[in-house]
Design brief:
Layout: E1 6-14, E2 24-34, E3 40-50, H1 59-65, H2 69-72, H3 78-86, E4 92-97, H4 100-106, H5 109-112, E5 117-119, H6 120-127, H7 136-143, H8 159-174, H9 179-186, H10 210-216, H11 222-236, H12 246-251
Parallel strand pairs: 1-4, 4-5
Antiparallel strand pairs: 1-2, 2-3
Length: 252
């Protein structure tokens, strides 16, 4: 295994979702490297560190990750561990996370040396649009990635196990698409394969009528708005609108 080029997959457990009011209480990582045969694979470089968030952990987040205040009371603070985990320079090509927009709130550019990011959630919707949904765990059980050791990916909502699962998705993405393509998709809003709310929930975007699509063009959610814009552009170029019968699909 050649380890001169790595992408470090990370996962954070926190006291909440809005820094600086909330802080990190655990970080986990798992590296993926380009092997000598030209395929990306998980490496032996991985780990997890408890972090003192500098404030109590609310019960609502303890109920998710089960990290207790007494477990992090003597742990290092975020500014003492972040750079060494996030910036394994010069080998790191990029950082990756599932729904990376969340991690990027805490892993700021000064801590990452301005790293590029890959969001495996956004990329999964591009590469595997038929998945029933796109959470880290749904993808795990729907895709059943080769080599994923079930017990090593548990418990869910702890930093290293979640990073370990995400790394398997990233590995397979990198073996389907280029780094540049994954970064490009990650820098855009999410392209949703199906409508996820309202009376058209579950439909593919080409199946909804123009009036419904027009409403989504003004949605507050940037992923919904972006997806609606892409669909409107496709229709403007003469793209098919409506549901196809099984016979019509066979004729395509």
């Amino acid at each position: 295994m050649s380890s001169d080029r790595i992408i470090r997959v990370i996962d954070l457990e926190t006291t909440g979702s809005s820094p600086p009011a909330h802080g990190v209480c655990e970080i986990g990582w798992q590296d993926v490297a380009l092997g000598s045969g030209g395929r990306w694979e998980l490496t032996d470089e991985h780990g997890g560190i408890l972090v003192n968030p500098g404030r109590p952990i609310p019960p609502v987040t303890q109920a998710v990750h089960h990290i207790l205040d007494e477990q992090v009371a003597d742990a290092p603070y975020w500014h003492d561990v972040a750079r060494q985990v996030l910036d394994p320079w010069p080998r790191r090509v990029a950082l990756a996370a599932h729904r990376a927009d969340f991690e990027q709130q805490f892993c700021t550019a000064p801590l990452t040396r301005g790293a590029d990011w890959i969001c495996t959630w956004k990329c999964a919707m591009r590469l595997w649009p038929d998945s029933p949904s796109f959470s880290n765990q749904m993808l795990r059980y729907w895709r059943k990635p080769d080599g994923l050791v079930h017990e090593r990916g548990l418990p869910v909502h702890r930093a290293f196990p979640d990073a370990y699962v995400t790394a398997h998705h990233l590995r397979d993405m990198l073996n389907e698409a280029s780094i540049a393509q994954l970064i490009e998709w990650s820098n855009l809003p999410g392209l949703l394969p199906r409508v996820r709310m309202g009376p058209d929930r579950g439909k593919e975007w080409n199946e909804i009528d123009d009036e419904s699509l027009a409403r989504f063009l003004h949605d507050r959610d940037p992923d919904i708005r972006y997806t609606a814009e892409q669909e409107a552009e496709r229709r403007g170029q003469g793209g098919f609108v409506g549901s196809r019968s099984a016979e019509e699909w066979l004729l395509l």
